[in-house]
UniProtKB/TrEMBL annotation, chains A, B:
Its main location: cytoplasm. It comes from Seriola dumerili (Greater amberjack). May contribute to the regulation of cell proliferation. This is Nucleoside diphosphate-linked moiety X motif 6. GO terms for cellular component: mitochondrion; nucleus.
Amino acid sequence: MAASGFVYKLIPLVRGRLRGRTSCPARIPVRAFSCTASRSQLHSVEGTGGPLAGKVDRFGGVTVNLADIGLPADISECLFSTLLQESLVQWKAEGKVAVWLRVPISLSRCAAAASTHGFTFHHATHDHAVLSLWLGEGESRLPGFATHQVGVAGAVVDESNGKVLVVQDRNKTKNAWKFPGGLSDPGENIGVTAVREVFEETGVRSEFRSLLSIRQQHNHPGAFGMSDMYIICRLSPLTYDINFCTQECLRCEWLDLAELAKTNDTTPITSRVARLLLHGLERGFGEIDLSMEELPAVYSGMFYQLYHRQLPPTSKS
Amino acid sequence: MAASGFVYKLIPLVRGRLRGRTSCPARIPVRAFSCTASRSQLHSVEGTGGPLAGKVDRFGGVTVNLADIGLPADISECLFSTLLQESLVQWKAEGKVAVWLRVPISLSRCAAAASTHGFTFHHATHDHAVLSLWLGEGESRLPGFATHQVGVAGAVVDESNGKVLVVQDRNKTKNAWKFPGGLSDPGENIGVTAVREVFEETGVRSEFRSLLSIRQQHNHPGAFGMSDMYIICRLSPLTYDINFCTQECLRCEWLDLAELAKTNDTTPITSRVARLLLHGLERGFGEIDLSMEELPAVYSGMFYQLYHRQLPPTSKS
């Protein structure tokens, strides 16, 4: 069904409703969308049903973008609920397995209406929310949304003297030495985050060498209850003068790796990575590194980053 | 300000409004929350202003949970917009740097009202959305929401014969051998996902050994435009009989690692990891593994998983 057909059907309905009085949801102190009156009105005005205009995907789901189907800006929860109800009947009859609703923030009242039909938020960002409803058999097989934030720290190692760049956070109760770092921006590669955060916190410029460790932690208080992936990279310094951010850091120093590996004034992970780095200094960083390679992504023409242990030179690459 | 105080202030306002006629937003074909009339009404009834009841965090942000402050279930966009506007004036005067609104899905119309004051969706899940507005100087310093989904595949290696468990997806154009895997459920550890997905797809039970490779990819079509972290683990088989899921897989076999490493009927990453595993079979898996250790999280009493190269036995652990 074309979007224009939907608009044609809807506009006279809304105009008719606005002229009436009994169906105005704001006049009755109940949930605004419990409106059987409006539903009969809908049928009397229009006569024919038909689903909201959506796109069907290869999994048998239908996606309706409420910004694209010509809904009046002031459509009521009541009326949208009725339209959605009729669409759901038809989608179920057609064997659709799921419905996705993309709701612009200005039409958020449609999300409330949809929730009375079982829709829940799948995700929301900036100016729109996406709701979903599973219509298929058994448990929902819909994929979830992003579950992890990614934090990256950079261990900048000066190989000439065995020192590493460390900071103490300003706003922590315990003044523990740690590697500078922070959250990845959306779409930012791990190594880029490490180099950026090191520079922002310490003023030291560096370049990415390898990935050293990964920590996974759930129900993270700094991640709105979601999961946190915290990655420590090995970096090489390009500059050495410290000019640290006094908003974020209390101290910033080039510290002996051996000292960092044995002090109690640090975090367990920092201590662990310090020992890894000491081992790397002595035996070669090849012992501790996951090296990175960029490979082309088949579908997008973009590149992805792949990290793993270096293959021996005798292997085909 | 206590939530009960807010309720006291609001209820008579709403009742007064419902008795009137001109301010019913459903009656005027304009954006429902452009209602200066209602605002003057607010002042005439109440006389005193006061912010929505919220909690102040250590960063100077205020969080208002709309489910906790006694809003009437049928509060209009117009009235909420007016209340929010007055609160914003006060929060700005108090030097608050940010406002977070937690909006139950049934009160979604309040999200539309908030958007007219500059609020945007920070995230949404299941039955509520969270909106945010930066009031501080310069660019927003609010942390973002989760950016990555995590997919995990398991390479189950039978060390007795050098074979590895591989599948071909049912719904792909190219029938490439790959390791069974899928998306992590919320709160699920990497190794648990690998073992679960291998069993669901192939019927083979296995146990986690190590982490082998990590891929980071942005704007991922299967991740609603977000980023994807794809992790391959090494697993050891506990059972060997294949009973694969015909919904997901076209084929499932124990394949020679040497054959997988040289065939073209696979993906670049699978091929790469097959060569890593061959190297591990010959020289010991210690050459290719990131081993995992559980450590206690300081703040939560929970544990996190840390992956890095095994430290040599001579190091303190």
